[in-house]
Amino acid sequence: MWDHEIRAMASTHAIIAASMLMATVVPAALVPGFSVYGTHLLWIYSVSGAVAAVSVAIFWLLGISPPTRKHTLGYKLSRLFRSCLYFFLSCMFFHIVVVLYGAPLIDSALETFSLAVLLSSLTTLRCLCVLGPNVQAWIRVFSRHGAMSVWDTCLQITVALTVLGAWMGAFPIPLDWNRPWQVWPISCSLGAVFGYLSGLVVAPTWIHYHRKQLTYKCK
Amino acid sequence: MERNCRLGIRSSAFASVILIFEVLAVALFLRGFFPVPVKSSLSKIRQDLPIEPLSGGSPNSSHVPQPLFKRVVIMLVDALREDFVFGANGRTYMPYTRHLVERGSTLSYVSKARIPTVTMPRIKALTTGSIPGFIDMVMNLNSPALLEDNLIWQAKTAGKKMIFYGDETWVRLFPKHFIEYDGTISFVSDYTEVDNNVTRHLDSTLKRDDWDILILHYLGLDHIGHISGPHSSMIQPKLMEMDDILKKIHGALISKEAEGSLPYLLVLCADHGMSETGSHGGSSEPEVNTPLVLISPAFKRKVGMEKPDEIEQVDLTPTLALSLGLPISQNSVGHVIPSVFEESSLRDQLRFVHLNGHQLSCLLKDSISDYAKEAGFEQYRVAEKAHGSWMKRYLEGNASEVLTNMGKKVLKQYLEALSSMSSALSKQLGKYDLYSMIAGMVFVFQLLLVLLLAMPEALSSSAAVDLPVMSALLSLPFYLLCLLLASVHVLVCTSAESSCYFCSLSWGLVFAAIALTSAMSCLLLSLTTRRLPLGLKLPGKVSCISSSEWSLSELDVLLLAGTAGHTLSLAASSFVEEEHQTWYFLLSTLCLAVFQDVCRKYFREKGDAGGDEEEFVLPYKENAKEEIYSEKWLALATPPFVLLCCRLLRSLNQTGVQWAHLPDLGHWLNSSEHKVVLSLLSALCLVFIYFLIQRRCSLVSKVALALGLLGVYSYRAAVGNVLFPWQHSGRNMSKGTVEARFVYVFVLGILFTGTKDLLRSQIITADGKLKNRGLWEIYSGLVFLVSLLFRPHNLPVLCSCLLIQTLLAQFIWKKLHYDAAQTTIMHYWFGQAFFYFQGNSNSISTVDISVWFVGFDNYVEAPAIFLTALSTYAGPLLWACHLVCYLSSDINRSPVAMGHGCYCLALLRSVPAAAYIVLVTVLRYHLFIWSVFSPKLLYEAMHLLLTAGVCLVFNTVEQSRTSSAA
Ligand SMILES: [Zn+2]
Ligand SMILES: [Zn+2]
Question: Model ipTM?
Answer without folding.
Answer: 0.93
